[in-house]
Design goal:
The complex is a heterodimer of chains A (280) and B (456). Chain A has 280 residues and is an all-alpha fold. Chain A has two domains: 111 residues; 152 residues, no CATH class. Chain A is 74% helix and 0% strand. Chain A contains nine helices and no strands. In chain A, α3 runs antiparallel to α4 and α3 packs across α5. The two termini of chain A are 27 Å apart. The radius of gyration of chain B is 39 Å and the shape is elongated. Chain B is built from nine helices and 19 strands. Chain B has 456 residues and is α+β, with helices and mostly antiparallel strands. Chain B folds into four domains: 92 residues, no CATH class; 108 residues, Sirohaem synthase, central domain (Double Stranded RNA Binding Domain, 2-Layer Sandwich); 129 residues, no CATH class; 92 residues, no CATH class.
């Protein structure tokens, strides 16, 4: 088989699948060596994916289109998983906690698997239509996906927080970080995601204003990104209301991510609008 | 901030409008109601909703203006309430924040110092708070970085303070005000600006745009100048996807061309606050016909859609009805020939096959010389003086986030003084965020001080 970007990227899927499995094993057995192995697999997958993205960029030049690989559903899924792994690796580096990997890498793996193996997603490199021929494309996509990926990781924290429940002591649940730490991590990642989502919405508005003369047209994609924004705004303000911390915010981080997924896929497949790349 | 006394009525109202709970309620309400307009088709005619959703649903759709959800009275009211919430909340918190901001962190007692979240205390019964100890400890303290302030004679010692990021207090205001600024920009723009459309044939000039209001009525928007479309270009990729839409525009004022630009989808032309965006195009057929009179005289006429041509020899009018670029390999056109009173004929012309046309006894020979397309560009025309206010609000919003989320308000205190017969050193710290990282730094400073106090 000829080595092309699609091949490298579908191979990445298996690295992330392996990483998710090994992180899960690490969570169960708590052996340091297994943890190291999980990190090694994740970093290798990340490097492979980076190479795949770079190669795809090069291939688009060879085809005479020459654009960053951020222009259709396939490319956005790849980029989503890439940023999710990037954000996760940062969190792992900062917290030195590998159990989180069992909850974060599956998101990247699912995105890659969907991109590589779903018949709904075309992996051909397509040229840019006039509306997408703008420098704002890169700024808009990168900022939005930094937000989406952070929210995926925050959702992982929310799930961890909820399954941790009120358990104390040892066992599987005991080896999860403490609820206080999870709450703080969840808050920090939501803040990070919220900032990027905001910048993503703003860059989208600037771009729309340049292309169509309207910075906000209540297109379904725009509206859903605003709905997502409201959900996370709720999560951020909830900390200031007594009795709202912890569990409710964990639920909000999961609801928020569902809203992200709908903004990302649901709008493309179920609703019509300007961002109709999913329908092709 | 909470007072224990019984609250007066205005206070209850103010509390309601400024509460975080109202903000959260509004976020949730806005999030849920915003879904409506993404599921229900927007901006269709009332007839459409009646036909598709039945009379009962239609009543709800009409009453709640769900055909234009985001401009309905109740949605705008929610946004209005959201603004009131922001304004009242900002004004109410202001004195409180001002008090916090003005509070001098040096103005505190040793008891209060001991209640800071991070602290280390060294009792040195055998040492004196002399120059040696003070200068060594102080130099470690200065290693934190930032300006050191001090107050003398605080319960028998000197109190030093390093404070960073105090303006973090204002970050939240920055965010809240920025959202109001964005709203203000949007409202101002919608009143002071306009949005319209122009369809221009290649070579055509206009001095006005058209606007369509909610009722579907079309009105003219005059421009202070004229805009001309010199040429329109469309290109496709080999796979058929569009590659380029381009209009070469000229702005004409006082009979002179003052601006010229080729606009693309992402590259509009602005003149005197009015911006022209490439938005659509249509291709219109244009043909050339040749007429040979009975006396052998030849005349060529150019016909395009929407235009009629005069046939001077006969006083007849000729128009193009239909153009087919490929009929058995040749272009074909159906044309109309009529007299001014309205009587006329239609006939097909196929390129390469001349046709005889009789008027009275005279026979004219008509042939299709050339068939082609002429483009009409569709421009979106906009004037929005509020857009810069919106961008200003966006920049404030992002800067505000940066401050609120990542600039912590950090304070480090150091007290060195006499304690009974010996000396005492207190290191204390407080931060508003990222306590883990702060604690690391605090402990590092503490360790260095420990080394000094251990030696003494």
């Amino acid at each position: 088989m000829q080595i092309n970007s699609s091949y490298l990227l579908s191979l990445t899927t298996f690295f992330y699948l392996g990483a998710a499995a090994v992180y899960l094993l690490y969570w169960i057995f708590r052996l340091h060596k297994i943890g190291i192995l999980a990190t090694i697999i994740t970093v290798s997958g990340f490097l492979l994916e980076t190479a795949g993205i770079a190669l795809r960029w090069k291939e688009s030049y060879a085809l005479g289109y020459g654009h960053a690989p951020l222009s259709n559903l396939y490319e956005s899924l790849i980029f989503f998983s890439w940023v999710t792994i990037l954000v996760y690796l940062f969190v792992e580096y900062k917290t030195r906690n590998r159990v989180i990997g069992a909850f974060a890498t599956p998101f990247a793996c699912l995105a890659m698997a969907y991109a590589s193996f779903s018949p709904n997603v075309q992996d051909t490199i397509q040229p840019l239509i006039p509306a997408l021929q703008s420098n704002w494309l890169i700024a808009h996509v990168i900022t939005c996906f930094l937000g989406y990926a952070s929210f995926a990781v925050a959702c992982g924290f929310g799930i961890m927080y909820l399954i941790k429940g009120d358990s104390k002591g040892g066992g599987l649940l005991g080896s999860l970080p403490s609820k206080k730490v999870l709450d703080e991590l969840m808050h920090q990642t939501i803040i990070f995601g919220f900032l990027w989502l905001t910048v993503g919405i703003i860059t989208g508005a600037v771009w729309a204003n340049q292309a169509w003369g309207t910075y906000w047209s209540w297109d379904p994609k725009e509206t859903w990104s605003l709905i997502t924004w409201f959900v996370y705004a709720t999560a951020l303000h909830a900390r200031f209301v007594r009795g709202w911390a912890g569990k409710k915010i964990a639920y909000l981080s999961i609801i928020g991510f569902i809203s992200v997924i709908f903004t990302y896929f649901g709008v493309n497949f179920l609703l019509s609008g300007l961002h109709s790349y999913g329908s092709s | 901030m909470k007072s224990k006394k019984v609250e007066s009525k205005p206070n209850i109202i103010l509390n309601f409008f400024s509460s975080v709970k109202l903000a959260i309620t509004l976020f949730i309400l806005l999030a849920i109601t915003s879904i409506i307009g993404t599921v229900l088709p927007q901006g269709e005619s009332l007839q459409f909703y009646l036909e598709n959703f039945g009379p009962t649903s239609f009543k709800i759709i009409k009453g709640l203006e769900l055909y234009d959800t985001y401009h309905s009275w109740w949605y705008l009211s929610l946004l209005g309430l959201f603004s009131v919430n922001l304004v009242v909340c900002t004004i109410r918190r202001l004195p409180y924040t001002l008090r916090l901001y003005r509070k001098d962190a040096l103005n505190l007692s040793l008891d209060e110092l001991a209640r800071r979240p991070f602290k280390k205390i060294w009792n040195l019964p055998k040492a004196a708070p002399d120059e040696n100890l003070v200068s060594r400890i102080k130099s470690v303290f200065e290693g934190i970085g930032g300006k050191v302030r001090n107050r003398k004679d605080v319960q028998g010692g000197n109190l030093y303070l390093i404070e960073k990021g105090k303006w973090n207090y204002w970050g939240v205001y920055f965010i809240h005000v920025s959202i109001l600024v964005i709203f203000a920009g949007a409202v101002f723009g919608s009143f002071a600006g306009f949005k319209g459309r122009i369809m221009l044939l290649e070579g055509e000039t206009t001095d006005h745009a058209f606007k369509r209001d909610e009722a579907g009525n079309i009105s003219k928007i005059p421009l202070n100048f004229s805009v001309k479309c010199n040429k329109f270009k469309v290109e496709f990729y080999p796979n058929g996807a569009p590659k380029l839409f381009q209009s070469d525009l000229s702005i004409i004022k006082g009979g002179k061309e003052v601006r010229k630009k080729s606009i693309l989808v992402n590259d509009p032309l602005s003149y005197e606050g009015v911006t022209f965006y490439q938005s659509s195009y249509e291709s219109l057929p244009e043909i050339e016909i040749k007429i040979i009179s009975p006396d052998g005289k030849e005349r060529r006429l150019s016909l395009s859609a929407f235009e009629k041509a005069m046939w001077p020899e006969t006083g007849m009018v000729i128009g193009l009805i239909k153009y087919l670029p490929n009929v058995h390999g040749s272009p074909a056109a159906r044309i109309y020939i009529g007299d001014p009173s309205g009587n006329g004929d239609a006939l097909w012309l196929l390129k390469g096959h001349d046709k005889d046309y009789k008027i009275g006894d005279s026979v004219f020979r008509i042939s299709l010389v050339r068939g082609g397309e002429k483009y009409m560009t569709g421009l979106q025309v906009k004037k929005d003086p509020g857009v810069w206010i919106v961008w200003l609000g966006c920049i404030m919003l992002v800067l505000g986030f940066g401050v609120v989320f990542w600039v912590p308000h950090e304070r480090y205190w150091l007290w060195i003084g006499r304690d009974g017969q010996g000396a005492k050193v207190i290191l204390a710290g407080q931060t508003t965020k990222n306590k883990v990282a702060f604690e690391k730094r605090f402990n590092k400073i503490g360790k260095e001080m420990e080394k000094i106090t251990g030696e003494i």
